[in-house]
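Propose amino acids for all 318 sites.
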């Protein structure tokens, strides 16, 4: 199959690319490397990478003249919540307008498409109480990022309803795994913690570490998406993508202590403003389609540490 991954040089995209390339599919990536890294996709043939902005309509038109894609993963986005708060006009151009434009081009040019996958976020639920989050939970965006992600998933759904484009949206919960960049204070907490253990740095808990999240290992995320792609009933729908298991930061920290067999320094600061205390997804609809998370938190962290340590170029998918 021909597979297009927008934002494919990033954390999730590069893992998806490696997975599908290992299954002998042709993977094309378009990425402007704003938060991604070319080293993440060192396995990809050079000609299959297009360094371009997803807003560049000419490049997109040319790409769709050249290829008929079977699967498109649309991951390219301004992913930093802080950036979307600082400049929502700029981020909505990437996160909403470019999604709409991509859907329009697909509708016009890519007739044989089997699936368009949109990466939405648990952020759409905001801070409203009531767990686990299911598809009937209230949507309450707390940032331009969350509004933009909701708009993207809804446009994807609408293009299915109006024009029959085979779209599926996923609200990713807290994804972790190899190639996640730990270098910002707002990076995923597991990548930051792992980096502290690896380099004997002090880890900062915002709050007391009792806050919980639904941490999903990248391989489970990929298996859920792959399962949905192979199941036509998932077309036109949006799914939560987590594990259905709630894990505290303290638990993650003690798992790292076991894996690394050492202690590191910690400090405690105030809870972050707007931080959610607890989060977990209801994944029943995906389980009904055959998704079965394989990585509990200990297995996931262990696999992550094995792959992340020194060998970013080592193959994760055979
Ligand atoms: P990432 O930053 O590693 O990947 C995003 C990629 O998109 C990067 O490679 C970046 O260079 C590229 N990009 C950004 N703007 C672009 C543009 N204008 N044109 C072309 N490429 C552009 O982030 P990630 O964690 O891999 O996230 C992938 C997707 O999943 C994003 O849409 C994100 O919003 C969503 N998501 C991620 C999580 C998570 O836990 N990581 C949770 C919820 C949703
Ligand atoms: C996630 C998203 C965020 C989105 C939010 C809304 C990621 C990486 N972030 O944030 O974009 O706005 O969902 O649902 O997916 N923490 C520490 N120390 C650190 C870093 C984090 O204690 O060094 C704490 C945070 O305060 C938070 C928890 O760890 O309580 C998880 O943080 P993070 O990984 O950023 O994820 P979310 O807060 O869930």
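Proposal:
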């Amino acid at each position: 199959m021909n597979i297009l991954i927008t934002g494919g040089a990033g954390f999730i995209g590069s893992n998806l690319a490696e997975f599908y390339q290992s299954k002998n599919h042709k993977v094309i990536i378009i990425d402007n490397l704003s938060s991604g890294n070319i080293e993440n996709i060192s396995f990809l043939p050079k000609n299959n990478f297009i360094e371009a902005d997803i807003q560049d309509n000419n490049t997109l038109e040319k790409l769709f003249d050249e290829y008929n894609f079977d699967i498109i993963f649309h991951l390219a986005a301004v992913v930093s919540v802080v950036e979307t708060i600082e400049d929502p006009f700029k981020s909505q151009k990437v996160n909403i307008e470019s999604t709409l434009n991509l859907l329009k081009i697909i509708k016009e040019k890519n007739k044989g498409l089997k699936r368009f996958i949109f990466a939405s976020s648990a952020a759409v639920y905001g801070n409203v109480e009531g767990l686990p989050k299911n598809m009937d939970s209230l949507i309450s965006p707390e940032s331009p990022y969350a509004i933009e992600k909701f708009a993207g998933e809804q446009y994807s759904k609408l293009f299915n309803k109006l024009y029959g484009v085979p779209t599926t949206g996923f609200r990713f919960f807290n994804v972790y795994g190899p190639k996640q960049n730990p270098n910002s204070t707002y990076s995923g907490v597991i990548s930051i913690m792992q980096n502290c253990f690896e380099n004997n740095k002090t880890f900062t808990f915002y709050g007391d570490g009792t806050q919980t999240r639904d941490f999903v290992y990248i391989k489970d995320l990929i298996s859920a998406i792959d399962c949905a792609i192979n199941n036509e009933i998932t077309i036109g729908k949006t799914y939560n993508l987590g594990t259905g298991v709630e894990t505290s930061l303290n638990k993650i920290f003690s798992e790292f202590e076991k894996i690394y067999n050492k202690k590191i320094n910690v400090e405690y600061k105030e809870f972050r403003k707007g931080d959610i205390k607890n989060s977990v997804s209801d994944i029943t609809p995906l389980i009904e389609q055959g998704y079965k998370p394989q990585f509990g938190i200990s297995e996931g962290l262990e696999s992550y540490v094995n792959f992340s340590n020194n060998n970013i170029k080592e193959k994760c998918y055979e």
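The chain has a mean pLDDT of 96. The pocket of nicotinamide-adenine-dinucleotide (ligand 1) is lined by residues 7, 9-13, 31-36, 53-55, 75-79, 94, 119, 121, 172, 174-175, 188 (CB under 6 Å).
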